[in-house]
TrEMBL record:
Protein name, per record: T9SS type B sorting domain-containing protein
Family matches, as NCBIfam families: Bac_Flav_CTERM (TIGR04131), choice_anch_L (NF038133)
Record InterPro entries: Choice_anch_L, T9SS_type_B
A Pfam family the protein falls into: CHU_C
Superkingdom in the source lineage: Bacteria
């Protein structure tokens, strides 16, 4: 039993090696192109030329291959290699690096296409052809020994390359069709590579695998099956050149496998014309194959009866396809295109957008959020249409989404489609911005409230709505409050604009007079009223004329009553005081007027016990009088003193003194 299992294992291992591709060097270049690569009769082939390595033993670097029922992804076709093709079949158990000793040159056209200068060991297949269809394509994959699973860092930049070069006969400018799909990047070992090694991955979605030993070819890895294609003009002669080469040296061979029968001449109706692609059809549109032959046109899978020409006028959206029978072609080229007509945009009936002037200056200038306006401008706007707003129909600079109007109170803007321009280049849709203002008075107020009282706050009439910040919210024009604090009301005017008015309610009470500070016997007699209380007070000396200052100046001597009034109506208090002063002169002439000199009303300030001394101008004491006496009559020692200035000293009980002078006139 043990030997039986060993035998089965050996046979299975050997059988896995037999599942390799096979190659055939016996096909002529003409047969390879006409019978293997094209095999359809849809192109006229001439001038087939092949060149490759010139081995003394006669091995070729090009030929036919077949996958021989293996897992290799292409059934059959043409192989072009930088080494002997008879070394290409698997297993992958040896290093392929042929062509090191036969002076095998590179290719200048390949160097130009890949931006190289050092290609070597080039194998070239080229021919002329005249396509019957408007598009050519063929399938291929790139295999290479340079797809190392354990490379050193200096091996990451070595890259064999190939090119599929196309030009019209008579032209010298080639177009390289062997590009990474969707890019302009030429396909090489380092532009399509898988991950998992120290070399960086590149476009690995197009890489197939690193190959183990048990693989149908003797190459270390390969790309997925890719397609090279190009539009061509039917009936025009073209030249195609398929070339692969090593870079720098002969080591690590590579090969191109061209799929048999994949060189197709097709019809090309062009790219889909859809709203999603940004290129919908604007009006009636012609599809044209530019092919001579019998045409069958289809709309959404149904044949359009009677349409057999190469041109079809399209008038409705749908999936259009064509099948062309071309004399000499064993296949009928087909193609399909999706056509969508750009919708006629329907502007919403709501094309006027009011906004309230948001700042304190109600000048009709405010900021609009255009991102909130744009989505509702049209009723049938497709999802991928981009709308922008402009200040004029001819403007090219779109407005920012946060926009401040430049024309007060009302301004017209214009909506345009900006990302799908082929049908809407000159179409603009006007909208109107309306800027409403709040011109009613909403200035803040400060109001006093007396202790244990209530007041009415009135927000003013003529507003659509009121909303007070009370708990619960009150919605009337007036409210009654009993406590101090800030009360705010949000007002809505007739234009739907809102503003907030604040009432600062402050507590207030009748004042208490603590003291009256008197400055008398001075050039500027004054009185300062000292009060206390939680209120806003005003002051008066006659009960009629009030001032905010608590200081009264330039007072003459005499009795005063000060009135302190609470401005918030919480009451009034009063108190009397006296301003003292001395007469500036007296006339002792016996006429009954100013016959004596005395400081009066000292008792009103409790100074009746003070002493008054009178001196002449030389400092001689003339008289001492009592505040309660009639005063001095201008006589000293029985003699009438002459007119002159005399000095006095008022000596108070607290020791302070008032010193000044007066005039005696006769």
């Amino acid at each position: 039993m043990r030997y039986f299992l060993i035998l089965i294992t050996v046979l299975s291992f050997q059988n896995s090696f037999t599942q390799s591709i096979i190659v055939d060097e016996n096909y002529t270049p003409q047969q390879l192109v006409e019978n293997i690569l094209i095999n359809s009769g849809c192109a006229s082939i001439t001038n087939v030329v092949v060149s490759g390595g010139n081995y003394p033993t006669g091995e070729k670097t090009y030929g036919y291959f077949n996958n021989n029922g293996s897992s290799f992804p292409i059934n059959e076709g043409i192989i072009l290699s930088t080494g002997k093709i008879n070394n290409a079949p698997g297993p992958n158990n040896s290093l392929l690096d042929d062509g090191g000793d036969i002076s095998w040159q590179g290719d200048n056209d390949l160097n130009t296409a890949l931006n190289l200068s050092n290609s070597i060991n080039a194998t070239v297949l080229e021919f002329d052809f005249v396509p019957l269809g408007s598009q050519i394509s063929f399938d291929f994959l790139l295999s290479s020994e340079q797809y190392l699973t354990n490379p050193s860092s200096n091996q990451c930049n070595y890259t064999d390359g190939f090119a599929f070069l196309l030009r019209e006969v008579g032209s010298t400018n080639y177009q390289n069709l062997a590009l990474v799909p969707g890019t302009t990047i030429p396909i090489k070992i380092n532009t399509i590579r898988g991950s998992g090694t120290i070399c960086p991955a590149a476009n690995e979605q197009y890489f197939d695998a690193f190959n183990g030993i048990n693989y149908p070819t003797n190459f270390n890895g390969q790309t997925k099956v890719l397609t090279a294609q190009s539009n061509v003009t039917p009936g025009t002669p073209y030249h195609i050149k398929l070339v692969i080469a090593d870079e720098g040296n002969y080591r690590y061979d590579s090969a191109i496998f061209l799929k048999g029968g994949s060189f197709n001449t097709n019809v090309n109706l062009g790219d889909d014309r859809t709203v999603a692609n940004g290129n919908p059809v604007c009006s009636s549109f012609d599809l044209n194959t530019s092919l001579t032959g019998n045409h069958k046109w289809f709309l959404n899978g149904n044949e359009i009866i009677g349409e057999t020409n190469s041109t079809l006028t399209v008038t409705q959206s749908g999936i259009y396809s064509v099948e062309v029978t071309i004399p000499g072609c064993t296949s009928s080229p087909t193609d399909e295109i999706v056509i969508e007509f750009a919708p006629t945009l329907i502007q919403s009936s709501n094309n006027t957008f009011p906004e309230c002037d948001a700042d304190a200056i109600q000048d009709g200038i405010t900021t609009f959020d255009l991102s909130a306006i744009i989505p509702i401008l049209f009723t049938n706007l497709p999802a991928n249409y981009q709308i922008s707003l402009f200040e004029s129909p001819m403007a090219t600079s779109a407005l920012p989404l946060t926009y401040q109007n430049t024309i007060p109170y009302q301004q017209t803007l214009y909506a345009k489609v900006t990302n799908i321009s082929n049908c809407y280049d000159t179409v603009s849709f006007p909208i109107t911005l309306i800027i409403n203002t709040f011109t009613e008075d909403y200035s803040n107020e400060t109001i006093g409230i007396c202790e244990n009282n209530s007041i009415i706050l009135d927000a003013g009439n003529g507003f659509l709505s009121y909303s007070w910040n009370t708990n619960p919210i009150q919605t009337s024009q007036t409210i009654i409050v009993t406590n101090s604090g800030n009360y705010s009301v949000t007002l809505e005017n007739a234009l739907g604009c809102f503003k907030t008015k604040t009432f600062n309610v402050v507590g207030s009470e009748i004042a208490t007079i603590l003291d009256i500070e008197i400055n008398d016997f001075a050039q500027n007699n004054s009185a300062t009223i000292i009060v206390t209380g939680d209120g806003l007070y005003e002051y008066s000396l006659n009960g009629l004329d009030y001032q905010n200052s608590n200081i009264f100046e330039n007072l003459t001597s005499g009795e005063y009553t000060v009135y302190v009034n609470d401005k918030n109506g919480c009451g009034q208090i009063s108190k009397s005081f006296y301003i003292l002063d001395f007469p500036k002169f007296f006339t002792p002439n016996g006429d009954g007027y100013n016959d004596t000199w005395q400081i009066k009303n000292l008792n009103k300030q409790g100074l009746e016990d003070s002493a008054i001394y009178i001196f002449d101008r030389y400092g001689k004491l003339i008289k001492q009088i009592s505040p309660l006496s009639e005063g001095w009559n201008g006589i000293y020692n029985g003699n009438l003193l002459p007119s002159s200035d005399y000095w006095f000293v008022l000596e108070k009980k607290d020791g302070s003194r008032v010193r000044s002078h007066f005039t005696l006139k006769r």
